[in-house]
Amino acid sequence: MLLTPHLLFAWLDGLWDGIFSTQGIMILLLMGYAGAMWLFLSSAPKVYTVMVSDLEHARQFYEQELGLAIADVPLHYYYNYEQTLGVASMDPLYVPSALSYSSPKRPSPSDGLWYQLKKNTQLHVISGASKGERNRQRHVCFDRECLELLLLRIQRRQLRYKMRSDRPLNFLVKDYDGTVIEMAEISARP
C-alpha cells in the first residue's frame, strides 16, 4: 500500500491530535513520572543496617579500624521513612513508645551512623543490640551479604578474627584496643 502525501498528512494530524489531547498529555506525564522514579530508585544505594550495643564504640571501630568513609544519608530515607518502617498505618496503641506519635523524640533517618561500604552500597549503624556474652560489644545484622563484606574488610585490614559458625555467620573480631566484638547474622527463620 502506497502512502500518498495526503494520507500521510492525515495520519500525522490524527497522531498529533491524539498526543496533545487531555488523555495523551496525561499518558505522557505518567510516562515521564515513571521514568524519573525509575532513575531515582535505580540510582539509590543499597543500604545494610547493623544494630550495635554501643554506638560510640562502633563509630571508632568502623572509622578507625575498618577505615570506612562517612556517607550522606540517602535521599530515599528522607521520603516516606515512616512508611518504610510500617509505622504510619499502625494504631499508636500497638506502636512501641520509642516510635509512638506521642513520644517527644521520633526516630529520624539520620539517627545512627552512615558509612560507604562499596560504590553503591552503604552501611547504616544503629544502636539497640544487647551486649554479648562476657559483656562483649555486639553487632548484629539480618543480611549475610553485609557481614561477608565486613569480614572481607576485616581480613584486608589484617585484624584478628575467629570464625564461630558459618550458618548463620558469626565471628569474633578484636580491635586494636583489644576489645572483642561479636559480629552475628540474625536469621529471620526460627
The helical percent reads 25-40%
Task: Briefly note the structural class of the backbone.
Answer: alpha+beta
Low-confidence stretches: 81-107
CATH architecture of the largest domain: Roll
Number of helices: 5
* Cα-atom radius of gyration: 25 Å
Side by side, the strands of the main sheet go: 2-3-4-1-5-8-7-6
Q: What general form does the structure show? A: rod-shaped
Number of strands: 8
CATH class of the largest domain: Alpha Beta
Biggest β-sheet strands, sense, barrel: 8 strands, mixed
- For this structure, the CATH topology of the largest domain is 2,3-Dihydroxybiphenyl 1,2-Dioxygenase, domain 1
In whole angstroms, the N-to-C terminal distance is 68 Å
| Mean pLDDT score | 77
What does this structure look like?
The relative contact order is 0.14. The chain has two domains: about 5-40; about 45-75 and about 110-185, Roll (2,3-Dihydroxybiphenyl 1,2-Dioxygenase, domain 1), CATH 3.10.180. The chain is an alpha+beta fold and about 190 residues long. The chain has helices at about 5-20, 20-45, 55-65, 80-85, 145-155; strands at about 45-50, 70, 115-120, 120-125, 135-140, 160-165, 170-175, 180-185. Strands 2-3-4-1-5-8-7-6 form an eight-stranded mixed beta sheet, with helices on one face. Mean pLDDT is about 75; it is low at about 80-105. The chain contains five helices and eight strands; from the N terminus they run ααβαβαβββαβββ. The longest helix is centred in the first third of the chain and has 22 residues, at about 20-45. Strand 7 (about 170-175) and strand 8 form a beta hairpin.
